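Q&A log
Question type: sequence-to-structure
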Amino acid sequence: MASSILRTEKLSKSFSNVGVQQHVIKNLDLEITEGDFTVIMGSSGSGKSTLLYALSGMDKPTMGRVFYGDEQIQDYSNDELAVFRRKNCGFVFQSIYLMENQTVFDNVLTGALIVQKNTPQLIQKAENLLKQVGLNEADFHKYPNQLSGGEAQRVGIVRAIINDPKILFADEPTGQLNSASSRDVLDIFTKIHQNGQNIIMVTHDLKTALRGTRVLYLRDGGIEGEYRMCAYGEDDLKERRSGLQKFLDEMGW
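Response status: OK
Response body:
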């Protein structure tokens, strides 16, 4: 039986808007186990990104508890959360947020050097990861404005995984990419998941969701339904798509 790496108990998040409390996440219980590629879906305003940020320590819940193993993080200070995220979490966003004044290689190493020492092994690891996502050595010295959107997102993925995070969090990672670049990026997510990376991804896109092994459907801050799939493979794509589409139709997607 797979071990639990993240779980929540009665997780809630609310915001005050002109004196009125808006409850975005409501008493949510969730468990993520080793090997999961969890996809979070739901209509606009259902709480998808809010849940992602609460799970990753980017935002503190209003109530409830968040466990990484036996470690509770919901009461950590901002500084403690920053240290925790650097050691345990990787992030890939729709907006890629590369540092424009740094090269591809420096963008990758900057985050790594906060956690790891500058060693030949780290430099070799960065080079290997960049090559694994399809970048050439000539690309290592380019600046972000010299990259295509798909290339930039590949750099963002390497930056997110170079510290070997327990969980990679992704928020609409293909939202600003064309169809060809989206497929390339999703192929990378599939590969790193097959290599053992745990992933939690928010998306509104069916093709993106097909890459997961577990789809959670949110409605009004709670989990309305869950659908599980085997690991992604082209040979079962038609059946996979049909099953997920049926589930989403039942959810009212």
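Response note: Residues 91 and 229 are 24 Å apart (CA to CA).
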